Structure formats: structure tokens, C-alpha cells
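Hey,
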Amino acid sequence: RPDFAIDSAQTSFPLSFREIAPGASDTERIGMRGRQNGSYNSELFRLLEESSLSTHASPQCLSACSYMGLILAALIQGADRDEVLAPEWKPLAALVRTSSFHSEVAEVAFGSFRRKKPPEIVGSGYVVKSLEAALWTFHDAKDFREAVLRAVNLGDDADTTGAVCGQLAGA
């Protein structure tokens, strides 16, 4: 049995932000606040990072997975797209502070996808470029269809870019 295998009988994962931060407001839960000392919750960050370990354990992948999971969780909870993609979003600042957040992913998270245009934006199989391309197609699209169509039309590794963008646009 590999070291990274999870025994579901012995491991219980939080089902929602309400279980991660009981007693906190929805906004605080999205930001992972609400522990007894009011500090940001590193448990969610750890779980997000661990979700990548079995197949993609590079520092870039771990950081991209953490950032993507944080965005998805916030969007699913009803947070505004512009808010969660803003470089000053408090949960992003907490993620950068509480983990070994990779500098290449930080550049994307802090807005490189807003400053660039194709051909600088590419639908590549490299995790940082895929994330950047998906965020570029998603950040100002008027709807799901436009976002995903823009993603796959970048070409190259279109299925990856489309899948990543589709998660964001569908959340």
C-alpha cells in the first residue's frame, strides 16, 4: 500500500466550511477564520495541498492545487468572482503566508492572467501555464460557455485548459 493512500475508515474530512470553522460567519469561513484564536485555518490549506500529492507532488502543483481549491470553495459558497480573483483577497494572503506557496503560482494568483494576452497566455500541460490560461479565460467571461470556449480555443493542451476553466466557470 503506498504511503499516500488514505484509509477512509480512519480519516474523516470536513464536508463544509461550517465544519471547518463552526460559529464563524460565511465570509469568515470562506477565509478560513474562526478558530479559537482567530487565526487562519491551516487545516483546509493542508487538505487542499494533499489532494495533489498522489499524482502531482511538485511544489508548483501543490501550490496551484491549493489556490484552485480555495477559489473553488469560495465560488461554491457564493463569493463574487472579482473578489476571489483579486490580489488583495484575504484568504489568498493567508494561503501565501501559511504554506510554502510557489513563486510561479503566486505570480499568477497576484494577477499575471490579467496583464497578459495570447500568445503569452498558452493552454499548456504545465500546471502554472494551465492555471494562468484558465484564469485568463474565466476572469472576464460573461458566462460558462464563453469562458470554456475561450479556453479550448487557446489550443495546445486544450482539454486541460478547458477542464480547469470549466471547474471555475461552473462553480
